[in-house]
Amino acid sequence: MSADRVLYDWTPDVRSYAVRLGLSLMGVECRMQAVDMDLPAPHHADGLLAGECPPVLECAGVRLTRPGTILHYIARQPDVARAWLDPAHEWAILNWLDFGVSALDTLASARGAALATAMPVPPATGALDAVLRRMEDHMAVRAMDGHDWFAAPAASIADVMLFVVFALSADVGVERDTCPALRRWARGLRALPGFAVMPGVPDYA
Amino acid sequence: MERWHSVSVLSDIRPGEVAGVRIDGHEVVLWREDTPAASLHAWEDRCPHRGMRLSFGFVRGDAMGCLYHGWQFGAAGRCRLIPAHPQVRVPASIHVRAYGVREHAGLAWVNMEGTDGFPDHATHWPDDVQPVRSVHVRRGATQLRQAIGLEAVDGMAWRGSVGLAVHEPVAGQAMLHVVCARSGEPAPTPVALSHWASRLRDAVESGNPTATIMGELA
User: Fold this and answer.
1) Tens of pLDDT, residues A18-37
2) In the CATH scheme, what architecture does the domain A2-80 have?
3) Strand partners, B22
């Protein structure tokens, strides 16, 4: 089955990490095609179309290029536990997933300015701060109501997307002590079977 | 009271958990043992080996382990294990600086200058307290204290059953810690208090009057 799925993956890219993490947590195997977008276009990777940027998932004639859609698609596969897109909480999950995708775009742009340029500059983090504050307020109240996860009784694809936003916001200078509810929630996600790391997201912390 | 800083609500630091906090720009690791005693520790957030933040590390029983090379530190911050040299008896000179720490009124209090001087008036605060949450505010501690009517020397402001404390992780930013006494006057639910704290934060940050919001607690 894994041979039928191909993920074009760029290791340091935050959106690619969200997909890798989701695949790993959901226990889905996939053939990985490494891409280096820092190289000139002809050397990116065989099979990547002009103008495409990882992550790109190719599966059974479907070609998906947005991380939220890819996680949604994977969660709907018959061999994946239903909790990742719990039908009883589907709208809340998809709502937070969509929030997370926008937040990840915000993070990617700030992080790119901070790390991935010849002349890094401290990025403006106002938009990211607003996103994290909304997440923090939400999870503070969720915890008081006895919930561990953003949108459902168990971890969902929304938690995967939002975890990447929180975990890598440290790269643009967001300190963990300003988001205690998110720190607790992130600790829970790290403890799930299949959790995967990337540069900037170690095993602990 | 100025030397004792309220750095966290106790519900955010459970057995086996590690949290990095800052006090006036100084990085402090707060961690709780994963043992029946579950003692709380506050140390300088820096491994003496390579300077790694210990708050990135992990708790193993009654020891704190550094993420970088696994050095483990036990009571009073003394290094007890260097995994690359397990047979070595670690000299006492290898240790992390330990700070004074107290658990009181639902909050963790840290004194970076020693363990004494916890004020007598704090003993009159309620014992049976439910921690609610800590809220980040993008204004200095002085401005936040003014908004809630708290003198720095008092440590906490009580409005009915609700207790409020403030500390400054770094200049220009503050954390508002909210707790609620379980006995005594009826109090809002924790969820209602969380929303209240968010509204207070938004008012303080935008420079709007806070008297009406504070009046909700009376």
Assistant:
1) 999 999 999 999 999 999 88
2) 3-Layer(aba) Sandwich (3.40)
3) B27
